Structure formats: C-alpha cells, structure tokens
Amino acid sequence: MTNRKSPTVLVAGGAGFLGSHLCEALLARGDRVICLDNFLTGRRRNLRHLEREPRFELIEHDVVRPLPASLRRRPFERIYNLACAASPPHYQADPEHTLLTSVLGARHLLMLAEAAGASLLQASTSEIYGDPEVHPQAEAYWGHVNPTGPRACYDEGKRAAETLCYDYARAGRVAVRVARIFNTYGPRMRADDGRVVSNVVCQALAGDDITVYGDGSQTRSFCYVADLIDGLVRLMAHEAPGFAVPPVNLGNPVELTVSDLVQRVLAMTGSPSAIVTRPLPTDDPRRRRPDIARAQELLGWAPKVPLDQGLKATILWFADEAEDGPRGVVV
Ligand code: NAD
Ligand code: UDP
C-alpha cells in the first residue's frame, strides 16, 4: 500500500533489536518508514523481510556525523531516536563513540525534527537512574550515576540527550517525548549481545555453562518486546500542552533476581547446563524495577505478556536462529 497521506517516520537505530520491531509496527499502521542505521549492533537481516515494502527505506549512516542533506527535504512527522548500542559489552567497546552517539546523535536528529516540524521520541533508559537509592524508580527520581565509571559513556550520554531534548522543548523548537526503557528482551536480540536474557538462553540451549555475574541476587524487571513497542507508539501519539511530554518509564514491574531468571530458563529448556559465577561488573545496579504509574495514567499502557510466555517465544526463536550461530558474550 502506498498512500501519499501516510505519515513519514524516521527510525534512527531501526536495524537493531527494538528498532526493527518498531519499523515493522509502524509499517503495519500504514506509515512510511525511513530507517537510519550504521549497523554497529544492528543487522540487515533484521529488516530483510521489509526490503520489498515500497513504504520502507534504509539509509546507512552514523548519527555522530551530520545527517545527509537529502533528509532535510523529507516531510517527517515523527522521529524516533533509538540509535545507540544498548548492551554493556557493546557500548563499552568504544565509549567515546557511545557518548557521542547519544549526544551528537540527539542533536542532529533534534535539528532535523526542528527543520521538519516533526515530533521526536528519544529512547532513554533506566540506566539514567544508575544504581538507584530509590526503589522502585519513578520518573521524579534524579538518579545515582557514577559519572566516571565504565557505564558512564552510556548513562551520562543518555542523560545529556534527555537534557538536550528538554532544552529544545522549552525553547518551543521541537515537541519531544522521552521513553525511559527498562530491560527488554525477545526475538532478534543478538546471540552475542551480552545481555543476561540472550546469554542465559543461548548458554542453556547449547548446554554450556550459565554465567551468573556476582551472587545472582541483583534484580531486574524484564519487559517483552511487543509490549515495549506498543508503549513507544502510544507515547509518540500522546499530546501534551506545550512542547514537552514528561519522561515516561516503560518496562515490566515484575522484578526478579538474576538467579530466578536462570532457574526459569533452565526449567523451560530442560538444559543440563551448570551455573558458574563471574565477578560482578563495576557499577552493576543492585536493584531495578520501574514505577509505571505515569505510563498507565498518560498512555493507558501496561505490559501484557507474562515472563514465561515471553521467555518461551525467545527460547523458540533462539533455538531456530542460533543453531549454528555465535554463543553469548561473557564480560
Ligand atoms: P541495539 O544495539 O540492538 O540497537 C541499537 C541500534 O542503533 C543498532 O541497530 C545500531 O547499529 C544502531 N546504532 C548504534 N550507534 C549508532 C550510530 N552512531 N549511528 C547510527 N546507528 C547507530 O539495541 P536495542 O536493545 O534495540 O536498543 C535500542 C534503543 O533503546 C537504544 O537507544 C537503547 O539505549 C534503548 N534501550 C534499550 C533497552 C533494552 O533493554 N533493549 C533498555 C533501555 C534503553
Ligand atoms: N548478567 C549475568 N550474566 C550474564 C549477563 C549479565 O549475571 O551473562 C547480569 C548483569 O551483571 C546484570 C544483569 O544480569 O546484573 C542484567 O544485565 P544486562 O547486561 O542484561 O542488563 P543491564 O545490566 O544493563 O541492566
């Protein structure tokens, strides 16, 4: 379907795990989608099934660099900024590039949004709360981030990107939305992503040792990808007086320890894998759970997919996809 009235939407980081699901969801709504990605952690094969869709276009570009001039002539109505590696081993591999991706990437996309009169949604993160002293984390909490540690390139980059978004909004230059995304999992995570769900599932399926960092008592709250994408689309559609919708947490408030997660995956896969412990990475947050009252109130959003159902879909996907592929990356 090509419809001249289809809104044109830019998805920066659209070849990644979340971005590829977002591109798919927007095309299904009838939008025209332009995906911008440098393939740092994203993959062309995440988008292969969309290549023949006439409303879809893929542009290879690094958002650290000024955007291609040709984009300035496109009638964007909405811009989603998801461009940034999200897994600790990937974003720490080149910390300078990670920081610049968040800061300069947000600036370049905000400038484009201003020129086009488009709204911009910034994919922020629960990491802006750092190792939180407040539990669960509500949006009013300012966070507890180590500005000089190995996670700072990501956490502080995302914090600065939020700052820039609200500076543009306060000046009446761009209508912004900021989604603070909590740990999300599902099909199209990379087997070598390094995050806990992909590592544990791939290790269990292969019968390899399961790597638990620290004593496994640290907690996270895992959101299935379909729920998260629904939240992003609702947030973009949400209108508020003035230019700034306040930041909104998107995540699943069901909290569990890393050890609980491992036990569930072992039970679901029937894997004989043994558990081995590795040192807890520096600045690894001890606890994390979103307070989603704001998302419920503003967007009528709450996650629907229970962990066991989401894990089952993820395990099946990795069992198919990763048969001969790379194993989890251990930090
Ligand atoms: P991902 O690594 O799969 O996707 C990131 C995408 O951005 C990739 O396609 C990558 O190639 C692209 N990218 C990275 N740097 C770029 C650059 N300089 N120029 C252009 N493209 C670039 O990660 P994801 O899990 O899909 O995360 C997407 C977004 O959501 C990220 O901004 C991340 O910070 C945020 N987020 C994700 C989670 C999660 O649990 N998945 C949690 C919090 C926040
Ligand atoms: N983790 C683990 N084993 C792994 C990968 C991660 O125990 O193989 C731990 C990690 O130390 C953290 C939690 O699982 O406490 C979630 O890690 P992830 O990288 O998925 O997300 P983040 O730390 O960014 O929330």
UniProtKB/TrEMBL annotation:
Q: Which residues form a coiled coil?
A: none
One GO BP annotation of this record: UDP-D-xylose biosynthetic process
Keyword NAD in record = yes
Q: Which is a Gene Ontology cellular component entry for this protein?
A: cytoplasm
Which keywords, in A-to-Z order, does the entry hold? Decarboxylase, Glycoprotein, Golgi apparatus, Lyase, Membrane, NAD, Signal-anchor, Transmembrane, Transmembrane helix
Q: Where in the cell is it found?
A: Golgi apparatus membrane; Golgi apparatus, Golgi stack membrane
Q: In Gene Ontology terms, what is one molecular function of this protein?
A: UDP-glucuronate decarboxylase activity
Its required cofactor(s), as named, are: NAD(+)
Name this protein carries in UniProt: NAD-dependent epimerase/dehydratase
